Amino acid sequence: MKREVAIVGIGYAGFRPLTPDLSYKELVFEAATRAYAEAGINPRTDVDSFISVAEDLHEGTSITDEYVPDQLGAVQKPVQTVAGDGIHGLAMAYMQICTGQFDIVVVESHAKASNILHLGHVTAMAMDPVYTRPLGVHPLALAGMEMRRYLDESGLTHEHCAQVVVKNRAHALSNPLASYPAVLEVEDVLNAPPVAEPLTQLEVSQHVDGAIVVVMAAGDVARALTDMPIWVLGIGFANDAFALDSRSWAQAEYARLAGQMAYRMAGIRNPRATIDVAEIDDTFAYKELQHMEALGLCAPGEAGYLVAEGYTSLEGELPVNPSGGSLGVGHLLDASGLARVLEIVWQLRGDAGQRQIPDVEVGLAFGWRGLPTTSGAAIILAN
Amino acid sequence: MTMEQWVYPSVYVKEDDFREGRVLYTTWQPRLFYAWDRGTAIGRFLAELKQGRIVGRRCRRCRRVVVPPRMFCEHCFRPNDEWVPLADTGTVITFSRCYITWDMRRLEHPQIPAVIAIDGASPGVGFLHHLGEVDPEAVHIGMKVKAVWKPADQREGAITDILYFKPMTE
Which of A213, A214, A216, A179 is nearest to A31 (CA)? Predict the structure, then answer.
């Protein structure tokens, strides 16, 4: 059963490197309050199901879904946790609405990255315990190795990756929510301390705390709630092989497959011509380039040149990460994909303030679950 | 009837097989460190415990008083309204006599965890704590109890600033 589905409310809270004044529950309550006010709904009576996107080891609590209901207005309602990127949660909500059993579904994700004292140890827990972990290689080395292989196969250069950092942190200058706005030169990025060569410190997004809540509704319900529903044209998610010995190191296969699924649903044959604005995972600078190519926004090996010539800047043909992306806004762990969606929704509504792009009709958001995963999810939205 | 007919004839793995490397395995010691922000509601709650007081929050719409406090009412889904000083006494809602510790050591004398409805909070609202200075066999649902606090100079703003609850003598 296919139904029309729209985003009818989206709320945020936090987006700061430290949030000692608020517990994660208080952050989520604030984000939820904004989202419900926008949608004009009462969660206690109007919402049919709630989905939380969370990773137990990021929370330091197992079965984190048990802790979700209070701050979402979900007490004594259907609640579940999806592990993945926030956009995986939107896919779940979309499917629930398509069953016809649910008209309004809420998706929540949050990050309290500042509360994780050693994220490296947490990420290490995701590595295979028998034949990878004992080697004692920091997970960021996987990014360094992937970047090297990607540059080698694509023919792009480190300078191209550095351009992504310069662009996204400059975009962040006009985003009041962004924690890492900066005016940088390519040389600054290249000369930053190496983390795992060729990856330098400035090419790794820094974390922020925050929460995002999205309200999704079925067609007629959405039209009744708002004059400005943001329609889901397509949604997709996919994984590559997880094993380090057999995954694709140069191309982001998960992004290509997730994009294909979303484009097929949306009936989009030429993404580059159709998409007006894109928010794409840039956990690491090279990831934005790799993801652009995998998502069919340009030819393989072309992404770096598009960034360098300003094609993906705010004033360019196809702005990518006008919010500043994870490099400019800050990385929100599992909620990062929803931060991408937040910007696309604002752009499509004309609510993006200083960084509003004129005449946007179709936007793409893509989230990656982060190291060491090969999980990605894409959503195509239209006003 | 013996078990043997249900068990495949085989050689059992013994501890020595692991010790002497005949059975291979890999171990990992997780190193996970967190420092949770307490936030507004629990931050105040813990600061008050340090002063030897228990506080809750009231929602003016549904009139519930909850403890431990939160800044919003989960039933009305709205910010709740005011701090409420509560007594350090309460009523046992339910309890157990527990002969194992959380890490599964046997106890000769049981721990007595109990959920205690705090006086001044809404009926049935309270938190988990220990009972002490009590004959384990005398504990019962509905028993009136009172907090036994750490000495003021040893309190640190933690739920353990209350050592345990003990029976109130009528």
Answer: A213
SS3 A276: coil
How long a stretch of residues is chain A?
383
Question: Can you list the residues of chain B whose pLDDT is less than 50?
Answer: none
- What is the C-alpha separation between B4 and B22, in angstroms, rounded? 26
Residue of A nearest to B73 (CA): A70
Note whether A340 and A367 are within 8 A (CB).
yes
Please report residues of A whose CB lies closer than 8 A to that of B31.
118, 121
Handedness of CA A127, A129, A132, A134 (dihedral sign): positive
SS3 A210: strand
Packing angle, helices A24-39 and B39-50, rounded to 10: 140
- Per-residue pLDDT for A290 more than 80? yes
DSSP annotation of A268 reads -
* Paired strand residues for B119: B121
Question: May I ask the CATH class of domain A5-117+208-225?
Answer: alpha beta
pLDDT of residue B103: 87
The rounded distance, in Å, linking the Cα atoms of A362 and A278 is 9
pLDDT of residue A314: 97
The β-bridge partners of A134 are: none
Q: Confirm or reject contact between A116 and chain B (CB < 8 A).
A: yes
Q: Return the percentage of chain A with pLDDT > 90, whole number.
A: 91
Question: What's the mean per-residue pLDDT of chain A?
Answer: 96
The pair of structure tokens assigned to A322 is 């006008």
The tokens describing A234, both together, are: 């397509």
Task: Judge: A60–B34 Cβ closer than 8 Å, yes or no.
Answer: yes
Other CB atoms within 10 Å distance of the CB of residue A309: 12
Measured distance CA(A30)–CA(A23) in Å, rounded? 11
